[in-house]
Structures are given as C-alpha cells and as structure tokens.
Write a structure and sequence with these properties.
mainly alpha, about 5% strand, 2 strands, disordered N terminus, 5 helices, elongated
C-alpha cells in the first residue's frame, strides 16, 4: 500500500513563511473575481461592477505584494532555490494585474471593454499556467 506525503517545508521552493500560501490564494481569488465582475459590467453596464473590479484588483495586488515579501524572506532565511519558471509567470501575473489596475482607473465602458476584460482574462490564464507548473513540480512523493 502506497502512502502519499507532501514535501517538507524545507524542500526547494515550498512556502516556508506562515501565511504566504494563504495570501497567494487570496490574490488569485481577487484576480479571478475581477474577471467575473468585468463580465458582469459588460452584461449590465452598471458602474458598481466596474468599481468592484477596481477594488478587487487593488486587494489582489496588496495580497500578492505581501506574499512576495514573505517569499523573499523565506528565500533568505531558509536558503531555498526557487522554480524560476513559476517565479517568471508570477511576475507576469503581477505585471498584468498592475496594468489592468491602471486600465480600470478610466471612466465607464472604456475602462473595461476591451482592454480591461482582456487583461483580466490574461491574468487568470497566467495564474492557471503558473499553478499547473508549480503543481507538476511539487507532485506528492510516494512512499512504498
């Protein structure tokens, strides 16, 4: 019978600082909800949805920024070696979300269509690719 175990906290690239993973998940949720509220705005043209998108982008950038700081502390303290592909994709996610936030600062319809919702979709796709790459790199070990 095989027993599956997760990698230990000291393994390469694994989160070492408490709260880092939670903040990363919150940022991902905020960015994904931004796509949903952008879509809701295109269906209803109610400005409330545009405001929700802007707030979700801001909250996601704050959560991601704190997660990045904790990740950097983990690199220094625990001398971890990061997965550079995941780091690069996560940096692209933050760049796309930052530019999306700048686009959402505009007024009305032009803040969402076409660039706002496009950048929200790009952010979600990059997050999906990053999560997939990270998951394949950290498959649970099997002990027989």
């Amino acid at each position: 019978m095989a027993v599956r175990t997760l990698p230990s906290a000291g393994r390469r690239g694994w989160a070492s600082i408490p709260g880092q993973e939670t903040l990363r998940y919150f940022a991902a949720a905020f960015f994904a909800l931004t796509l949903l509220t952008d879509w809701a705005y295109t269906q209803t043209t109610v400005l409330m949805w545009k405001d929700f998108s802007s707030w979700l982008l801001f909250a996601g950038l704050v959560a991601a920024g704190i997660a990045v700081l904790l990740w950097l502390v983990g690199l220094v303290v625990y001398r971890e070696r990061p997965l550079w592909g995941v780091v690069f994709l996560n940096a692209l996610v933050l760049l796309a979300a930052f530019f999306n936030s700048l686009v959402h600062a505009g007024d009305g319809w032009t803040a969402i269509v076409p660039w706002g919702i496009g950048l929200s979709l790009l952010t979600c796709l990059l997050m999906l690719v990053s999560a997939t790459l990270r998951r394949t790199a950290f498959r649970p070990m099997q002990r027989v």
